[in-house]
Write a structure and sequence with these properties.
The complex is a heterodimer of chains A (129) and B (394).
Chain A: H1 17-24, E1 29-33, E2 39-40, E3 55-59, E4 63-72, E5 79-86, E6 91-96, E7 109-116, E8 122-128
Antiparallel strand pairs in A: 1-2, 1-3, 4-5, 4-7, 5-6, 7-8
Chain B: E1 8-14, H1 25-40, E2 49-51, H2 65-73, E3 79-81, H3 89-102, E4 108-115, H4 148-163, H5 167-181, H6 195-199, E5 203-205, E6 208-209, E7 219-226, H7 228-232, E8 239-249, H8 263-274, E9 283-286, H9 291-301, H10 309-313, H11 332-336, H12 344-356, E10 370-378, E11 384-393
Parallel strand pairs in B: 2-3, 2-4, 9-10
Antiparallel strand pairs in B: 1-7, 1-8, 4-7, 5-6, 8-11, 10-11
Helix pairs in contact in B: 1-2, 5-9, 8-9
Classes of the chains: A mainly beta (129), B alpha/beta (394).
Chain lengths: 129, 394
């Protein structure tokens, strides 16, 4: 089996604990602001567009498209970092995993997977759909 | 005339070292300060304003760093500014010094940069950032292995996708820098390279090759900024700060667009203040952490249309004496140096040399009366600070 890249464990904030609990169940949560109707990412306590505190967690469909990516070749284990634009709208930093790195292209459809980080905390990532 | 127009860059100094095994960070700051003061014909006791970035005494010193250095230098001040904007900090410092001088808060401003990442064996571009673990974004980014190179590489990938930019076009930026570096005895890389050399060098992070990346070097630089009375009494042709602009850019809550930088905002602000247009500029110093940084910046500053940067930089258009827009005639970060992983200082210094007419004769731009220096500090793909200066031979 190919060597796996070590994934740094995230350090959650009190107000992002739910995000990481959901990730452990294989789900991706995003924040939606009921005051201005915008999704945002990464999740904040106050909406970064209108500064309202009326933000709520919503479960994302877990689908999206690759906005951009780069395969880091100069690494013990080559890996693909990417920005994925979710079906809900926001674009987030992530990895594209479980696929031939040479087949990744901008615009490809992707779906959510989760991978364990160094301390076991599951981290949302994407694979080619 | 607004605030910036009252200030002049009266002294410059670039440290000749590229690997400082035998000198501390504090000593490097002292040496560049002394060099810039001598260049200006002023003494340490003339300095009443000091400007430095947050890493001035190393990141371990955290917020106390500026005090360590002003203590080491023995400065008596009435103005201190430690604005942090990564590699573009020093362009911001020139703008802030100009404003402080115009407001009568100080008369002689000293700005220093120093660093020794090479002596410390730091893998700047390819190591995952492990500081700032408590920042808001860290938990949503660090698990994915962001490095300096792959964050810039994603911008290049998107630019290629949207506009058809090629690796060969990006390579021309390195080729131009190498043509200039051959004349700089202090440059780390003095061999002239070809487009083929660049695209055949190993890929670090798709689509950026080894030769698309800047060097890692020790060293530093310093500037002296003064008001007109002092500047005009000194030995060098005075160089006036006529326009400044600043803009941070970030991920915008998930509305990510990697095709442009903060230069889209900082550039027009600087040009408006100076009352000139990109067509008036004879020489540009553009922060060249990577080839893609230069290409996107030139578009954002208005030297060509968005998306046309690839065509603009190709065929030697950035080579002094050959192309329309000579850039980084010291060899830039791509070939000369990148002290402390912060290229903003040396961008200003080479622009001042061009305006004084003291660049190497092989790269000196004829009748260089207006120059632009631009810094991109941080990561083009996540968060960065863009700072533009427009300078005039007075």
């Amino acid at each position: 089996m190919a060597k796996e890249r070590k994934i740094l464990a995230p350090t959650p904030f009190p107000e992002t604990a739910r995000y990481w609990e959901a990730a452990a169940q294989g789900k991706l949560l995003v924040k939606f602001c009921t005051a201005c109707g915008e999704y945002h990412f990464y999740p904040r306590g106050l909406c970064p567009f209108c500064f309202s505190d009326k933000t709520e967690w919503r479960e994302a469909a877990g689908t999206g498209k690759i906005y951009s990516f780069s395969v880091t070749r100069r690494s013990e284990v080559p890996y693909a970092i990417a920005y994925v634009t979710l079906a809900e709208g926001p674009t987030l930093l992530t990895n594209i995993v479980d696929c031939d790195l040479d087949r990744i292209r901008i615009g490809q459809a992707v779906r959510l997977v989760v991978k364990p980080s160094e301390n076991g905390q599951a981290v949302p990532m994407f694979t080619l759909a | 005339m607004r605030g910036s127009g009252h200030a002049y860059i009266a002294g410059i100094y670039e440290h000749p070292t590229r690997k400082a095994d035998d000198k501390s960070l504090a000593l490097l700051h002292a040496e560049v300060a002394k060099g810039a003061l001598e260049d200006a014909g002023l003494s340490k006791n003339d300095v009443d304003g000091y400007f430095c970035a947050g890493d001035v005494a190393g990141w371990d010193a955290r917020g106390a760093g500026p005090f360590s250095i002003i203590d080491y230098l023995g400065l008596k001040l009435r103005y201190l500014d430690s604005t942090e904007s990564w590699g573009s900090s020093y362009l911001v410092h020139v703008a802030h010094a100009a404003e402080a001088i115009a407001a009568g808060k100080c008369r002689v401003a000293l700005i220093t940069l120093a660093g020794r990442p090479r002596a410390e064996g730091f893998s700047t571009g390819t190591s995952v950032a492990n500081d700032g673990l408590t920042a808001g974004e860290a938990q949503f980014e660090l698990p994915y292995g962001p490095t300096v190179v792959n964050l810039y590489a994603m911008c290049a990938m998107r630019h290629m996708h949207e506009f058809g930019t090629t690796s060969e076009q990006l390579a021309w930026i390195k080729v131009a820098a190498s043509h200039h570096a051959q004349h700089n005895p202090h440059a780390m890389l003095r061999d002239v390279v070809t487009v083929e050399d660049v695209v055949n060098s190993p890929v670090i992070a798709d689509p950026l090759h080894r030769l698309d990346c800047c060097v890692i070097s020790d060293g530093g630089g310093a500037l002296i900024v003064t008001g007109p009375e002092i500047a005009k009494s000194l030995k060098h042709p005075p160089v006036r700060v006529i326009g400044t602009g600043y803009a941070p850019k970030h991920q915008m809550g998930g509305k990510v667009d990697l095709t442009y930088s903060g230069a889209r905002w900082s550039g027009p602000r600087a040009f408006d203040e100076a009352g000139i247009t990109p067509r008036d500029i004879k020489y540009v110093s553009i922060y060249d952490s990577f080839t893609i940084t230069v290409l996107i910046t030139l578009e954002d500053l208005g030297f060509c249309e968005k998306g046309k940067g690839g065509t603009f930089v190709a065929d030697g258009n950035l080579i002094s004496g050959v192309g329309r827009l000579p850039f980084n005639t010291d060899g830039g970060g791509l070939c000369n140096n990148h002290p402390s992983n912060r290229g903003g200082m040396t961008k200003i210094i080479e622009a001042v040399r061009q305006l004084r007419g003291i660049a190497h004769p092989a790269v000196q731009v004829a009748n260089c009366d207006l120059a632009l220096a631009h810094g991109t500090g941080g990561a083009l793909g996540t968060r960065h600070g863009s700072a533009t200066l427009i300078l005039e031979r007075a």
